[in-house]
Design the sequence.
């Protein structure tokens, strides 16, 4: 009979989100706590009685007492589910006090995978965990799975946290072989560490973070519903996250209706409160067109959870008619022409040209607003 469970990782409970304003920081932290309830709801809907967390349940080795207590309480409230917690690199076994405190609380439906040893989930299903010993273990912690003995006919599920290949800063010795599931006779290998969902092989997946925390992985987070039957597995993706993180690039040319292009690239108004946007503007616009886009961004930015605009690759094309808006003659006109010449001087450094263009845009915006 098939064994069904929910695979997740990288909750990073207690993450501070220091780069954001306080209002959205609080909402992002709360969403990370609330994700426990959403994971429980998804597990119940899929009739999956086990939730396997492949590391980084907590963002640090010393989460606050409130973060820890409230997380364990939320899991305890989902008493119809069994939660299996395994240390990752952020909450590794080096955090001895953290794992001692969790064990001391002895939540009945929370099991700890703190040793590389077989853990029987049911009489027919064995979990083979590879808990992180420290932040950078420096070796493949899944190697032990090769020789791990399990009862005949038992389904073998691996759980690990780390890189398969190509992760920045990974030591070669610490890379998990992409065919570990096949080498070790696993029906499924559930991985954590990479925050985007990714299938590595027929039986190996990164679950991704259930609630995203950067623009590296677009959209909301998710989890995986896994059904194992003997040596076979079936995996279904399951959306979980509240917040949508989006990096959006808009390419513009003079004459384009920049406002329409930017607006159409952004989420609809009803989705904006839970959207975090990293907007990159590229190309070239006249001063009038550029000012209109700047005004649009200033007006709608507060509608989003967070709204960042990078216009460093958007060049300004100054027309004589644009300069007339600043001033037809006089000192301001002279300053505008000097800035325009510097912004278009191919002999100047990129930084000088960008600074001159930004100053010209600012001057134009001030004067056009004053004349309106």
Sequence:
């Amino acid at each position: 009979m098939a064994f069904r469970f929910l695979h997740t990782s990288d909750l990073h409970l207690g993450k501070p989100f220091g780069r954001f304003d306080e209002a959205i920081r609080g909402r992002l932290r709360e969403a990370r706590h609330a994700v426990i309830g959403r994971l429980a709801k998804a597990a119940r809907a899929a009739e999956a009685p086990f939730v396997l967390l492949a590391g980084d349940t907590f963002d640090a080795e010393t989460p606050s007492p409130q973060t820890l207590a409230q997380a364990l309480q939320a899991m305890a409230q989902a008493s119809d589910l069994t939660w299996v917690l395994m240390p990752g690199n952020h909450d590794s076994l080096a955090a001895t006090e953290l794992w001692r405190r969790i064990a001391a609380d002895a939540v009945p439906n929370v099991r700890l995978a703190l040793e590389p040893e077989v853990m029987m989930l049911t009489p027919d299903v064995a979990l083979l965990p590879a808990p992180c010993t420290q932040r950078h273990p420096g070796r493949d912690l899944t190697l032990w799975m090769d020789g791990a003995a399990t009862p005949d006919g038992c389904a073998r599920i691996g759980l690990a946290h780390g890189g398969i290949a190509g992760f920045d800063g990974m030591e070669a010795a610490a890379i998990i072989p992409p065919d570990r599931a096949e080498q070790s006779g696993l029906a499924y290998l559930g991985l954590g560490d990479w925050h985007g969902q990714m299938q590595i092989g027929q039986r190996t997946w990164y679950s991704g973070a259930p609630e995203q925390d950067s623009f590296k992985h677009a959209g909301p987070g998710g989890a995986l519903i896994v059904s194992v039957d003997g040596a076979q597995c079936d995996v279904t993706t399951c959306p979980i996250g509240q917040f949508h993180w989006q990096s959006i690039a808009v390419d513009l040319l003079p004459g384009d209706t920049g406002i329409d292009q930017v607006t159409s690239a952004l989420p609809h108004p009803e989705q904006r409160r839970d959207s975090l946007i990293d907007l990159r503007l590229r190309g070239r616009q006249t001063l009038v067109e550029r000012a209109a886009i700047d005004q649009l961004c200033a007006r709608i930015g507060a509608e989003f959870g967070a709204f960042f605009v990078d216009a460093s690759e958007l060049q300004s094309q100054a027309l004589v008619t644009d300069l007339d808006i600043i001033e037809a003659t006089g000192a301001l006109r002279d300053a505008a022409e000097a800035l325009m010449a510097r912004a278009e001087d191919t002999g100047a450094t990129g930084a000088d040209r960008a600074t001159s263009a930004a100053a010209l845009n600012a001057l134009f915006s001030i004067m056009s607003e004053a004349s309106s």
Q: What stands out?
A: The CA atoms of residues 94 and 134 lie 5 Å apart. The mean pLDDT is 89.
